[in-house]
């Protein structure tokens, strides 16, 4: 190992809803992320990194467990994570770390291990087992709100109204500023809490911190100077159907999703109507704010880098910077995440690992996945990744090597059941088990398979990277559709739960791999 030779520190950073194309290091024509870029110059940037699911809880379950959704079975926000599964925090504890959380993990606890009246069962925003919680900051942001109050700012409006413009007369979509400054954002607060904790760590004792920022997740508002940092007129053209109604008509899932899950108020507090009612200019104004939110959280990353350097720990700290899932940001007339489009699943990943500098400053364009984080981190710190995990260690790439058997496609899943109220089940007239989709995406082709009889989708990404023309029923593409359906089936067969399937009871006793329950 680099530095002093002691076990390395670990810093895992997630920035919620950050698109993988929205970093200057990957060549975005507008967004500027100097601190993320600086990390990429010392580490490795993975340009084709994908979430395993959406929204937050399912996406994070893939990252934290190293298992695809088909195995961790966290389908929606609020689906409990089965306590039999190992996770990144528990595994780190086994090799001597005290994983410490700043922010949130959105992991719903297994109710079978709790009393019926346990208040933790009334929210999906639980903490991943194995973490010590230093500063919890779930979506209600109460820790941050009380901090604002101590600074003399009236935060009594609470979440999400505290994120409305300070000017009550501001337009529905504008770059009006909130009541808090750039030094008082939730990201600034969380960074300060991490740096304070960092100063308490004994020299020579390895630490593990998970800083989980909500930014650039909506509401879409940001203080100066980030509110005017980007010109709405700049930025790439949108990939979308000619109109909101035409987008809805293109597939039964979109007819449901755009009608029932695209309310303006989910993105700008108090805004009435649907996202599809906004004009092109308004979408661009929102995108400029989103870019500003990315730059704001990037500025806090700079504070973190400097704080670790000042502590003398930079050369002995593994840093992983990523997101849980991405953000449609106007593509296909949508905001938020879900469905099958790349805009919801392509996320950033930068890994800096001291002692593995041979590939420093390089970019890897092979397909990598959220499930790769857990095995990577364990291998870097001398732990053993369980062989039943779906992810693969990225360490060979960090050492400048090219694994011979690396995957040639990305896969993700999206489940749109609604167990609590049954609205989706009622709309489609089917049971919860059928409300899902699976994606296989290669460099040139994407195939989307639905449960419940919904029609499949097939895109020629070489000629239609914006995913605007479904070729699933084109006679000339039927052979490709069959090939990719078979590939998807083979992927599922390979990755079906292997917890005990890699073991066998033989004449001389148990052989193979046995998952030790936490």
UniProtKB/TrEMBL annotation:
Signal peptide: none
Superkingdom of origin organism: Bacteria
Record organism: Aminobacter ciceronei
Chain ranges of the Sulfatase N-terminal domain: 8-382
Coiled-coil annotated spans: none
Pfam families reported for this sequence: Sulfatase
Keyword annotations of the record: Hydrolase, Metal-binding
Keyword flag Transcription: no
Protein name (record): Arylsulfatase A-like enzyme
């Amino acid at each position: 190992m680099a530095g002093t030779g002691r076990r390395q520190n670990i810093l895992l950073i997630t920035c919620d809803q950050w698109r993988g194309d929205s970093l200057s290091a990957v060549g975005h024509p507008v967004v500027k992320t100097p601190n993320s870029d600086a990390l990429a110059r010392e580490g490795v940037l993975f340009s084709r990194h994908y979430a395993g699911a959406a929204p937050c809880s399912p996406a994070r379950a893939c990252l934290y467990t190293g298992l695809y959704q088909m195995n961790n079975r966290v389908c929606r926000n609020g689906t409990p994570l089965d306590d039999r599964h190992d996770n990144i925090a528990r595994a780190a504890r086994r090799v001597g770390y005290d994983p410490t959380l700043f922010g949130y993990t959105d992991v719903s606890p297994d109710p079978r291990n709790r009393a019926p009246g346990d208040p933790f069962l009334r929210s999906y925003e639980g903490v991943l087992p194995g973490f010590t919680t230093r500063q919890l900051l779930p979506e209600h942001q109460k820790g941050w709100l009380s901090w604002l109050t101590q600074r003399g700012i009236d935060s009594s409006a609470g979440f999400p109204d505290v994120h409305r413009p300070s000017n009550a007369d501001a337009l529905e979509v504008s770059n009006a500023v909130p009541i808090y400054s750039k030094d008082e954002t939730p990201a600034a607060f969380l960074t300060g809490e991490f740096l304070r904790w960092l100063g308490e760590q004994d020299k020579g004792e390895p630490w593990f911190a998970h800083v989980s920022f909500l930014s650039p997740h909506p509401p879409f508002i940001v203080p100066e100077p980030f509110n005017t940092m980007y010109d709405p007129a700049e930025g790439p053209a949108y990939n979308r159907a000619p109109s909101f109604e035409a987008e809805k008509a293109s597939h039964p899932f979109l007819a449901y999703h755009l009608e029932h899950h695209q309310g303006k108020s989910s993105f700008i507090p108090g805004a009435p109507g649907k996202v599809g009612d906004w004009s092109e200019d308004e979408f661009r104004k929102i995108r400029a704010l989103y870019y500003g939110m990315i730059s704001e959280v990037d500025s806090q990353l700079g504070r973190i880098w400097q704080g670790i350097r000042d502590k003398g720990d930079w050369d002995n700290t593994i840093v992983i910077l990523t997101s849980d899932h991405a953000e449609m940001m106007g593509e296909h007339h949508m905001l938020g995440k879900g469905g099958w489009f790349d805009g919801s699943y392509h996320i950033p990943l930068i890994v800096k690992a001291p002692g593995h500098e041979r590939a420093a400053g390089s970019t890897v364009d092979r397909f990598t996945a959220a499930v790769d984080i857990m095995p990577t981190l364990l291998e870097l710190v001398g732990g053993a990744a369980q062989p039943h995990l779906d992810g693969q260690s990225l360490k060979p790439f960090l050492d400048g090597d090219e694994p011979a058997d690396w995957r040639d496609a990305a896969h993700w899943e999206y489940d749109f059941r609604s167990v609590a109220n049954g609205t989706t089940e009622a709309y489609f007239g089917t049971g919860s088990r059928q409300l899902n989709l699976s994606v296989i995406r290669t460099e040139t082709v994407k195939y989307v398979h639905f449960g419940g009889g919904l029609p499949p989708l097939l895109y020629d990404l070489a000629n239609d990277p914006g995913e605007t023309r479904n070729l699933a029923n084109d006679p000339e593409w039927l052979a490709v559709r069959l090939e990719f359906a078979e590939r998807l089936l083979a992927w599922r067969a390979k990755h079906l739960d292997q917890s005990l399937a890699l073991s066998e009871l033989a004449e001389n006793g148990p052989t193979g791999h046995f998952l030790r329950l936490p």
